[in-house]
Design brief:
single chain; mainly beta; Ubiquitin-like (UB roll); 5-stranded mixed beta sheet; 4-stranded mixed beta sheet; rod-shaped
């Protein structure tokens, strides 16, 4: 019985509290919550409901406002934004959705040529958006040199290609840019552009209309992938300046030797031998013909003979004499004896 009385008492207290509490509607970011409370102010209701309030949040009516029945409390939460400028980061809370207004509220100055990245993507300065992060890339001054023209350009581009795009400088095939198009931009850097000029190459039986960003014909041929080998030369010469519209002829030079060979007759010598019968012969050294060579150097340009050198004759192997032994009568080898005088 005692337990029942306690339960009935608690139920009675709860019902009294329920009927005496203020019915309140809380709207947070468009989401409605119905609550009943014995709190007396807007701030007390929000604290009791566990709603964390930042100083930048908008509460209507204000937190100190007394409550009435059927009260509606509206909470407009400020949006957190992380702002990165160079190596500095700061977090702010804002109700703005226009980038320029957000930066102005945070006290961040924005240059005309600075670039904005919102959540990693580039955005125009006047974009309407609810960002999570805003990164500012400060513009840097670079110098662009193109021929005799020198210009200064303020840019927030990350690469040389981006700078040229911003400056509305178009490139054609074979134009050269230094540093490369993919080089990162640094403050004070100089970007040099060498324009390719059209010219014609006649080489290896072909005519090639091409372009090159070069100061000399030799450099232009190298860019076109045409090599001079050995005695090859060009008209005009490789060291000549490349001029727009010029025709460059590549002369391929080769040389070949024309060789003619012949025999040199040998001589035959006879030699009398004592121990060989008369009128009998014997070869004691066989003769061998000699060899001679005649060489002529022939020069060809683009496959056509243009010159010949004077013939040059060389004995490759001299001839060897043939020696034949001949038998002789003994009288040839006897000493003459004087005939005695007659008495």
């Amino acid at each position: 019985m005692a337990a029942l009385l306690i339960l009935l008492g608690a139920l009675l207290v709860w019902m009294i509290g329920l009927f005496t509490a203020h019915p309140i509607t809380v709207v947070i970011e468009g989401q409605r919550r119905e609550v009943r409370t014995h709190q007396t102010t807007v701030g007390g209701v929000l604290a009791e409901a566990g709603v964390w309030i930042e100083a930048e949040d908008r509460i209507n009516p204000p937190p100190e406002t007394p409550l009435n029945n059927d009260f509606v409390i509206t909470v407009d939460k400020a949006h957190p934004v992380l702002i990165e400028v160079d190596d500095n980061r700061r977090r702010i809370l804002t109700h703005h959705t226009r980038l320029l207004d957000i930066l102005s509220e945070s006290g961040t100055e924005l240059g005309e040529n600075d670039q904005l990245f919102v959540d990693g993507a580039p955005q125009p300065h006047n974009t309407e958006i609810i960002p999570n992060t805003i990164r500012i890339v400060r513009a840097r001054s670079v110098t662009i040199i193109e021929g005799d023209q020198v210009s200064e350009h303020a840019t927030a581009a990350q690469t040389v290609a981006g700078v040229l795009t911003e400056a509305k400088i178009a490139l054609v095939v074979a134009d050269q840019v230094s540093p490369s198009l993919y080089a990162p931009v640094e403050a004070g850097m100089t970007i040099a552009i060498t324009r390719a000029v059209p010219f014609t190459i006649e080489a290896d039986g072909r005519i090639l209309n091409t372009r090159a960003a070069a100061f000399s014909i030799g450099e232009a041929l190298a860019q076109a992938g045409i090599a001079l080998i050995g005695m090859d030369y060009t008209l005009p010469a490789p060291e000549s300046a490349l001029v727009e519209g010029m025709v460059v002829r590549v002369i391929r030079v080769t040389e070949a030797d024309e060789i003619e060979r012949g025999e040199i007759a040998f001589e035959t010598l006879t030699q009398p031998v004592e121990n060989l019968p008369a009128n009998e012969t014997r070869v004691i050294q066989e003769g061998m013909k000699g060899l001679w060579e005649m060489r002529v150097r022939v020069r060809f340009e683009n496959g056509v003979e243009v010159s010949r050198s004077s013939p040059r004759e060389t004995v490759i192997r001299p001839p060897r004499e043939e020696i034949i032994a001949v038998g002789a009568t003994p009288s040839i080898y006897q000493t003459e004896t004087p005939v005695p005088n007659s008495p």
